[in-house]
From TrEMBL:
It comes from Rouxiella badensis. Keywords: ATP-binding, Nucleotide-binding, Transport. Residues 9-242 form the ABC transporter domain. One of its GO terms (molecular function) is ATP hydrolysis activity. PANTHER family: METAL TRANSPORT SYSTEM ATP-BINDING PROTEIN TM_0124-RELATED. This is ABC transporter ATP-binding protein. SMART domains: AAA. Pfam families: ABC_tran (PF00005). It comes from the Bacteria.
Length: 275
């Protein structure tokens, strides 16, 4: 099957290996304008590799990526990216608004910082992500949730049609997680930007995401969340029996091994405890 329905993103039969070890094995899915999609899988399942492949940073053994119908660099103009684990040291003399400005002007920093039009655009973007009250703080002094807002503004200021975020919810407190998810949902609706957000725990996204790409075994199951997060679908994906349990508005994905012990596949034990 080829996923090419005129959407913002189509990933067709993507395969990636490292030194002969297959990490992605024929992964296909697509995103429509304004779609909020969770890229879900346990650590090491290939989420970062897939995002890097979409961005053209990772060479493919097979398959093709189209963004806005275009392949290669031509499509990348339509993409914003928030990478995982950016180290933002308190010593870096960069204010939140400087980082957002760089997203717009890149190398033309000196000239562009003096442009009133640029400043207005940056101010509007900072307001939109709820970052205006700390716009003049050093980026390294901000909390994790505040930094995520600024990084999202940096990635969005050129108004891409597709926004890729690699584990943006990792290491955030529960309140910041729900605020960032609500912000991203808002941006999807207002700007019709499509979002693909990777996470090892789908629970914070359940009420917001339109669709899911679930990675396991190098393969993906994709579609509407309720249709994909089913015992039979995930059992086929993993290649052994899986139980999907819904408990107090949370989803637990567990595997029964030969001795009937269960283990969490998508959440570390501490997250299970929070359920
Ligand atoms: P995730 O983002 O889901 O944690 P990754 O895409 O980072 O998964 O990694 C998928 C697998 O590929 C892991 O087994 C990881 O060790 C391996 N891997 C990732 N990057 C490299 C690399 N540059 N060289 C070799 N193996 C890699």
């Amino acid at each position: 099957m080829n996923v090419d329905d005129g959407g913002v993103l189509s990933a067709n039969h993507l395969s990636v290996s490292y030194a002969g070890k297959t990490v992605l094995d024929g992964v296909s899915f697509g995103l429509k304008p304004g779609e909020f999609c969770g890229l879900i899988g346990s650590n090491g399942s290939g989420k970062t590799t897939l995002l890097r492949a979409l961005l053209g940073f990772q060479s493919l053994d097979a398959g093709e990526v189209r963004i806005d119908g275009k392949m290669g660099k031509a499509g990348l103009h339509s993409v914003g990216y928030v990478p995982q684990k950016i180290m933002l040291d308190a010593e870096i003399p960069l204010r939140a608004r400087d980082l957002v400005t760089l997203g717009l002007t890149g190398k033309q920093l000196g000239f562009a910082l003096n442009s009133r039009a640029v400043r207005q655009q940056v101010d509007a973007m900072l307001r939109e992500v709820g970052a205006e009250s700390f716009a003049d703080e050093r980026i390294g002094n901000l909390s994790g949730g505040q930094q995520q807002r600024v990084l999202i503004a940096h990635a969005l200021i050129r108004r891409p049609r597709l926004l890729l975020l690699d584990e943006p919810l990792a290491n955030l407190d529960i309140r910041s997680v729900s605020e960032i998810v609500a912000l991203l949902r808002h941006l999807c609706i207002v700007h019709q930007v499509s979002i693909l957000l990777s996470a090892h725990d789908m629970n914070p996204l359940l009420s917001s995401m339109d669709s899911i790409v679930y990675l396991a075994n190098g393969r993906a199951a994709s579609g509407k969340t309720d249709e994909v997060v089913q015992s039979d679908v995930l059992s086929r994906l993993y290649g052994y029996p899986i139980e999907v349990l819904r408990v107090m508005n949370r989803v637990l994905v567990i595997a029964a091994n030969a001795s009937s012990d269960v283990c969490a596949l998508t959440s570390p034990p501490e997250n299970l405890m929070k359920a």
